[in-house]
Write a structure and sequence with these properties.
This protein is an alpha/beta fold. It has one domain: Rossmann fold (3-Layer(aba) Sandwich). Helices cover about 35% and strands about 25% of the residues. The chain has eight helices and twelve strands. It has a six-stranded mixed β-sheet with strand order 6-9-10-3-11-12, sandwiched between helices. Strands 2-1-4-5 form a four-stranded antiparallel β-sheet, covered by helices on one side. Strand 4 and strand 5 form a beta hairpin. It is globular, with a radius of gyration of 18 Å. The N and C termini lie far apart (about 40 Å).
Length: about 260
C-alpha cells in the first residue's frame, strides 16, 4: 500500500462563538509518530474532536485532507471508514453491547459487503491483541467500558486501535490516569502498531509517555496553533523547564484561550 498523508492547513475552530484553534497547520505521513504538547486550555483536545467531526465544534476556516480527499466533507462514519481513528480522553460506556460485538461490527463496517471478517479469525486476532495488552479474556464479553476503571478504558481504546488497524490514529491523552505499569502496556500496544502504513498523532501533557513511544516529531501548541516543533529532545526540555521559555521566546504573556472544559 502506498504511503498516505493527512494535511491540516489554516484550521480555525470555534466552540459557542469562541475561537479555540487559530491558523493550525500540520502534515503527518504514514510511518511517522507526531506528538503535540502544550499547557492546559490551548486547544489540543478541541483539535482532535474537530478533525473527527464532533458536532460541538464549528470549523470556520481551513482544510483537512487525507490523501487529497476533503475530510471535512465526510460524515463521522465516513472518516472512520477512510482509515481515521480517535482514542478519546474520556471513552464512553455503552450498556448492552459487548466489547467483542462492538469491535467485530466496527471492523466489518470498514469492509466491503461479502468480505466480513470470519468469527474464528476475529476471535484469534482479539485474543492475540488482548494478550499483548495483558487484558483478561473476560473483557471481550463485558459491555463496552461499563464498570471499567480508567486504566482499563485506556487499554480498551488501544485494543480497538489494534483491532481496527487504521491508517491514522489520534491518541488524546491516553496516558491520563495511568500508573507506570499500565503506561508501559498501553505504550507497547501503540508501538506494535508502528509500520510504514500507520501514522499517529499523540496528544499529551507529559514527556513520560514519550519515553515509551518515541516520536519522530514533537510540536508545542499554544493559543490554538503550533508555535514550535522539534525532535524528541524538545519534549525532554519541556519536561525539565516547562513552557515559560517558549512563551518568553515568542512574547506570549499568558495562555488565555482554550478548551478548559475538555482539558482538565
Amino acid at each position: 500500500m502506498a504511503a498516505s498523508t493527512i494535511k491540516i492547513e489554516n484550521l480555525h475552530v470555534e466552540i459557542e462563538g469562541s475561537e479555540i484553534i487559530k491558523d493550525f497547520n500540520l502534515e503527518i505521513n504514514t510511518g511517522e509518530v507526531h506528538a503535540i504538547m502544550g499547557p492546559n486550555g490551548t486547544g489540543k483536545s478541541t483539535l482532535a474532536s474537530a478533525i473527527m467531526g464532533h458536532p460541538k465544534y464549528e470549523i470556520t476556516q481551513g482544510s483537512v485532507h487525507l490523501d487529497g480527499e476533503n475530510v471535512l466533507e465526510m460524515d463521522v462514519d465516513e472518516r472512520a471508514k477512510a482509515g481515521m481513528f480517535l482514542a478519546m480522553q474520556y471513552p464512553s460506556e455503552i450498556s448492552g453491547v459487548t466489547n467483542a460485538d462492538f469491535m467485530r461490527s466496527a471492523i466489518n463496517a470498514r469492509r466491503e459487503e461479502g468480505d466480513e471478517i470470519s468469527l474464528m479469525k476475529f476471535i484469534r486476532k482479539m485474543d492475540e491483541k488482548m494478550d499483548t495488552l495483558e487484558m483478561d479474556q473476560s473483557f471481550s464479553q463485558r459491555y463496552l467500558n461499563e464498570g471499567f476503571s480508567g486504566g482499563e478504558k485506556k487499554r480498551n481504546e488501544i485494543l480497538q486501535l489494534m483491532m481496527l488497524e487504521p491508517r491514522f490514529a489520534i491518541l488524546d491523552e491516553i496516558d491520563s490516569g495511568l500508573d507506570i505499569d499500565a503506561l508501559k502496556v498501553v505504550s507497547k500496544g501503540v508501538n506494535d502498531m508502528r509500520n510504514p502504513e500507520f501514522g499517529c498523532l499523540i496528544i499529551t501533557h507529559y514527556q513520560r509517555l514519550l519515553n515509551y513511544i518515541k516520536p519522530d516529531k514533537v510540536h508545542v501548541m499554544m493559543q490554538g496553533r503550533i508555535v514550535k516543533s522539534g525532535g524528541a529532545e524538545l519534549a525532554e526540555r519541556l519536561e525539565a523547564e516547562g513552557y515559560d521559555w517558549i512563551k518568553d521566546e515568542l512574547g506570549i504573556e499568558n495562555e488565555q484561550v482554550g478548551d478548559q472544559q475538555q482539558e482538565a
